[in-house]
Design a protein that fits this description.
- The chain has 170 residues and is mainly β.
- It has one domain.
- It is built from one helix and 14 strands.
- The strands form two sheets. A seven-stranded parallel sheet has the order 1-3-5-7-9-11-13. It has a seven-stranded parallel sheet with strand order 2-4-6-8-10-12-14.
- The radius of gyration is 16 Å and the shape is flat.
Length: 170
């Protein structure tokens, strides 16, 4: 009952501050959305147990889509600016993804399948793109992009891979 009440309250607040397409929570899954500005959108689907999704958007025309299936996956997405977009797709157990974007027209796409993978993307500037794919277990990736027009594509499979990409203007 309390989850339904929470979701109803969250949906009502989001209706005032932005668009909240789909949010489904089951069995101790958590959703927190905070949107300010104009035409911000969030789409989310959680199946499984103890998944967590936190989205904070400030600006105009931002969008985030999160899919979580499994147990103990966590996603945090923060966007500030105009026309930033993010997709996070997690399947498995105890995967963690963090996306931070400040600027204009940045895009991040993260896929995690497996166990205990960690991915972090931070973009500051304009027209940056980061795509990270992790399958297997205990992989870690970080992408930091500062400036304009940077592109990164990280693909990790297997176990215990570590990748750090730093791109930008000095």
């Amino acid at each position: 009952m309390s989850i339904r009440l929470f979701l109803a309250g969250a949906a009502a607040m989001v209706t005032v501050f932005g668009t909240f397409d789909v949010a489904e929570a089951q069995s101790r899954n958590q959703v927190r959305v905070d949107q300010r500005g104009v035409s911000n959108e969030v789409g989310g689907r959680q199946t499984g147990y103890r998944n967590r999704m936190i989205v904070d958007q400030n600006g105009r025309h931002q969008w985030v889509t999160v899919y979580q299936a499994g147990t103990g996956n966590g996603t945090t997405a923060y966007q500030n600016g105009v026309r930033n977009g993010a997709v996070v797709d997690q399947n498995g157990r105890q995967n963690s993804a963090v996306v931070g974007q400040d600027g204009y027209n940045n895009y991040a796409d993260t896929y995690q399948g497996g166990y205990r993978n960690e991915s972090g993307v931070y973009q500051m500037g304009s027209n940056n793109t980061a795509v990270t794919t992790q399958s297997g277990s205990h992989n870690m990736s970080g992408v930091i992009q500062v400036g304009n027009g940077n592109n990164a594509n990280v693909n990790q499979s297997g176990r215990g891979n570590v990748t750090l990409v730093i791109q930008g203007e000095h």
